[in-house]
Amino acid sequence: MDKSNITAPKRIYAKEDVCIGCRLCEIHCIAAHSKYRHDLIKTFKKLPKRPLPRIVVEEDVPLSFGLQCRHCDEPECVKACITGAMQKDPKTGLVINDTERCIGCWTCILACPYGVIRRDYTNKKVASKCDFCLESGLEPACVKNCPNEALYIKNTVKSHDL
């Protein structure tokens, strides 16, 4: 198999030793998935229903870190999805939820071992999870806007590739 077109799967990792729990990752994630993508003020002042953050800051003082989809090698959410809405892109390795196909049955939420898929009742009853900000085509908003660089992207190497 020609692997030249396959990119190494990327993951967002957290450095809990520098995360201060400011939750700017959550705020910028909300804005990045709103109709005012690049405007925090409009996102929070003009939208009565804002999207859910697709990253959640976990805290147990003094420890804190951002937690989002791990885009697992063998995602349980994809196996559990009864409509095929939850899919793993074989090229990028990202697990993406097709909101048009999602019926909000929540089996993915039950199956996720990390608890990072959430119910989104704001606009349409669908599962909400990290999509790596694919629509923007840029660095994920949480990583880009972390003031302490507590979140970073790293290409992963599967054990069978070594």
Please tell me about this protein's structure:
Helices cover 19% and strands 21% of the residues. Residues 1-6 have low confidence and may be disordered. By secondary structure, the protein is an alpha+beta fold.
Features:
single chain; 162 residues; two-stranded antiparallel ribbon; disordered N terminus
Question: Termini, distance in Å?
Answer: 15 Å
* Major sheet description: 2 strands, antiparallel
Structural class by SSE content: alpha+beta
Helix-strand topology string:
EHHEEHEEHEEHE
Regions with pLDDT < 50 over 5+ consecutive residues? 1-6
| Average pLDDT rating | 89
Number of strands: 8
Rg from C-alpha positions?
16 Å
Widest beta sheet: strand line-up: 1-8
Strand content: 15-25%
**Helix segment tally:** 5
Quick structural overview:
With 162 residues, the protein is an alpha+beta fold. It has five helices and eight strands, in the order βααββαββαββαβ.
Question: Layout of SSEs?
Answer:
Blueprint: E1 10-14, H1 24-32, H2 40-46, E2 55-60, E3 63-68, H3 76-80, E4 86-88, E5 95-97, H4 107-111, E6 118-120, E7 126-128, H5 141-144, E8 151-155
Antiparallel strand pairs: 1-8, 2-3, 4-5, 6-7
